[in-house]
Amino acid sequence: MKVAAYVHLHRAWMPTGVGQHLIQMVQGLYERSDVELTVLAPRNQLNNSCRIPVEHPLTGIPVKSIPLDRRWLEGMWQHLNLPKADRWCGGAEWVYVPAEVYVAVRAPRLAVTVHDLHAFETDLPWSSTPEHQTLRRRWTGMFRPIIERADCILTVSQFTRRRLIELFGVNAKRIAVVGNGVDDAYFDTPSENASEPFQDTPYVVVVGGLSRRKGGDLVLKVADLLGRERPPIKVVVAGHGEAALNQQGTALPNVIRLGFMETPRLVKVLRGAIAMMFLSRYEGFGIPVLEAMAAGVPVVSSRWAALPEVVGDGGLLVDADDSAQVAATIRMLSRDAAARKELCTKGRKRAESYRWNSCVARLASALRSR
Hints:
This protein is α/β, with parallel strands linked by helices. The chain contains 13 helices and 13 strands.
């Protein structure tokens, strides 16, 4: 099966969940003996030799350069359905896109991945803001050709599959759930590197930075309650966030913001924590909860969107709006070693079922079955 993957190479630098998905799925397809894969990328994302840069996670995969700027190219695909990507596909049977981008094609079939639909939700706390309404208009233009013309729409969760059907009336037969996975590094035996300075006191980890969508305001309320403990339980935040919430976090003495962390350091920080607290208001999947489970860390998660589906019995689901309940749950885990151990065991077992090779296999199967 010949596949051309249209890839946003820039999303693999300091990758978020979408970037991780892109790297693992494209690399996984390339390594399959039954798939002949070529990457399609705008020239301005390649090096001077029109190849994927050496330091890029996908370096070494054959690539076809498209001689147009990415924004111009995708704008023409969206509004004009031109130029057809066939000229760069080398006779591919499928054009596969691991993110929400429409690619104009004539002969190949098109498979596009939808990670979440938060732009179209109307009951989120920020749904009526001008910023969100602008986002919705932009995503409406981007999604229209995907919904109308893609031969296969791929999703990372049953939740997003259900919302595609409810919001857009997409025929369920056009949708395939491929899921997300966990990097092997989270399962590996921890190294003996030196500890972080804060690891001599109890702490919880928050992954994804302090933003409203990730429940950053809720995190700070819980942090304030935990800061009154003796000794105070610290809240360690990995990732970048919104300026206003970052400033509020700085004012709390038990909040430690670390910014973006490479995987080895994040794994080490996770493994020393009481729990990973994830109070996100909307996730199409929620890779960080799986990463924590794989690392052997209890997860305290909100009940919103796809998170109950992913967490299952491997973590504790809480009412994220009830800061007292969340703080009490974390205190319980800090004091009850048996409960914590049981959660670690269940979480690790659940994470084992989310391996990237299984996701790639589901993707290959979805393409072959259509």
